[in-house]
Amino acid sequence: MPKKSFKGQNFGGRSKKQRGNRAKNAKTRSEDSSHGSGNFTYDQRSNHGSGISRVPHNNHSRSGNKRDCGKLGMAIRAQLDDDVAMSSESNVNEKQVIFRGRSRGSLTGAGHYSVSQRSRLPQHANKLIRTLIGDCSYYKVNVMNGHQYEKEFIIKSLMTRIAPNTFIPIMYKIVGRDAIFYVDDHQAAYHLLECDRRITTDDGFKLGIKVRPGYPNCEVDDVLKERMKLAMAKRYVAETNSLDLSQFHRDPELVQDYFCALFRPIMLTSVLDIVAEAIPNLHALNLSNNKFSIIEKLNVLWKKFPNLKILYIGDNKLKELNQIDALKDLSLEELQLKGNPLCNRYENRNDNYISDVRKRFPKLLRLDGAELPKPIVFDIVEEEVILPPMKIKFVNDPRAEKIAVQFMQQYYTVFDSDSRQPLLDAYHADACFSLTIAPSSQIQKFNKYLPDNRNLLRTNDTARRRKLLKQGRLPIVSYISEMPKTQHYLNSFTMDINLVTEGMMLVTVTGCFKELDTKDQPIRSFNRTFIIVPEGTGYCIKNEQHHLSHPTVDQEKQMLNSQPILSTSSSQPQPEQANITNAVLPDPSQQVLQSSSATEEPSIEIQQQMTMMLSQQTNMNLEWSFKCLKEVQWNYDRAFIAFNDFFKSGAIPSVAFQK
Prior knowledge:
Elements: H1 16-32, H2 62-80, E1 96-97, E2 111-112, H3 115-118, H4 124-133, E3 139-143, H5 151-162, E4 170-175, E5 178-183, H6 186-194, E6 209-213, H7 222-235, E7 236-237, E8 242-244, H8 265-278, E9 284-286, H9 301-304, E10 310-312, E11 334-336, H10 350-360, E12 366-367, E13 370-371, E14 393-394, H11 398-415, E15 427-437, H12 462-468, E16 470-471, H13 473-482, E17 486-500, E18 505-515, E19 523-535, E20 538-549, H14 553-560, H15 588-597, H16 604-618, H17 622-631, H18 636-648
Parallel strand pairs: 8-9, 9-10, 10-11, 11-12, 14-17, 15-20
Antiparallel strand pairs: 1-2, 3-5, 3-6, 4-5, 7-8, 12-13, 15-16, 17-18, 18-19, 19-20
């Protein structure tokens, strides 16, 4: 069979010509030293059995550094490799060869240095090995062939070897031929790794130690829950109503058989459920030193322990202060965070640290064991303080209120009708009108209004500002007529009369309305400021600023669950055209009395006036006043008598008076 050709292949990165020159030089050197003894020292030993002598190198030479790096890499692999070199002989100048199967994906004859060689590695080798272990929370320690020895012997031997350092073995057990346990300390893991092949037993065997990051999987069952209860019973202090769960995974009641690490959500949930059932009025809780890096699951503490005032959660692994937002619903008076990486971010910035923590817990009195300045009283919302109910209007002049209410009722009745042309009589000949929209990430939803948005912070062009200002009765009403059809919710209205003089009134109206022209019929929030001036025998608008924005979540929910009162449709009787310039209408009480005796349903305008009057006299909100009148078929006297009867018997719910 012909020999396989290796032509063109590169051995060791050298070309054929280079290898020839190297062979010639080696032959020459060999002839010059042929008179020697023929026994080579370590530096003279031939490489690959070729008879080529090795020239000693200086330790500081480049090639020497390469050999050191090679030794370091091989030593690290020896520490982290699953295969262990087993040899009865030890020679610091000899390489030990481990033969691996091809299934391991490595070449036969891959060499590793022995333990004695690893001890003679450069000083930075141990540091690099420590880095490869990693700064984890838990480590698995494997004592090979540990089944032959008692647990006490192995633990005592390791403790003696790493003294003065120490460790606590978690869940020690025999798996196959090996003894396995877990530790929770980075330094202990590193020192245990250094014990590899350093402890000799009575039968001359050297214990092999392997250390890897990891922790056992431990399920929660009824037996474990009972053990947890026993452990927590010893940690509870009845005098202070406090529970110490620090380093719970190290508890002597649990550590031998279970891995009860609270950073595992299933363990934390089980423990909190047990505590909440036994001690629902818990006052203080210590969760320090439990390897927490995420505390999102602690957001249930305020529900399970409403009286919790003291919480220790220091010496964990919290990196960002915003992680404690999960606890902000607690009314804490004392908190300990010291020992978490987040505290390092506030080094030399203690005032900022206190301020940022107190934003989450305004009642806090102690932080990391230090007394804090007393909190400013008006920064704290006291739970026992009952705020006065919201008023739907602010008015100093009752006469002005009557005029403004009548004017706005007529205005919005026409505004929500099919034609807005009658509003020509509502505006002064020299009136001005401007529209603005609140900036937001969803401002595009106001696309029908955006071309006329006169936001002075966004519109810097003077000419465009002047163009967007509608001036004159006809341009204003023409623009208003082009706006989408609307339905306003009267029960969402507020009205403030901020200024009243003989020549003008300043009225601000806020509320919500629904657009009818679009498919989804969005709900908008508005704020309209009117300057009303006398005109003939009535009043008209001299200036208006119309501001639109998105409704709040509460506003939107309220609107979706209620009916628009100020709304008209083709099936409802249309109000007569109102001459708004004659806004001083007849006394609405007279119209109410007339409608009370009438058998037919009054017009929408009268309904609105009756609703407003009943709300003022009974202090009910507009929605419930409307319901009350509707149930008695718009008989005002019967509605008022019914209100008094139900109010005396306490049958009217409190929601009827919320405005």
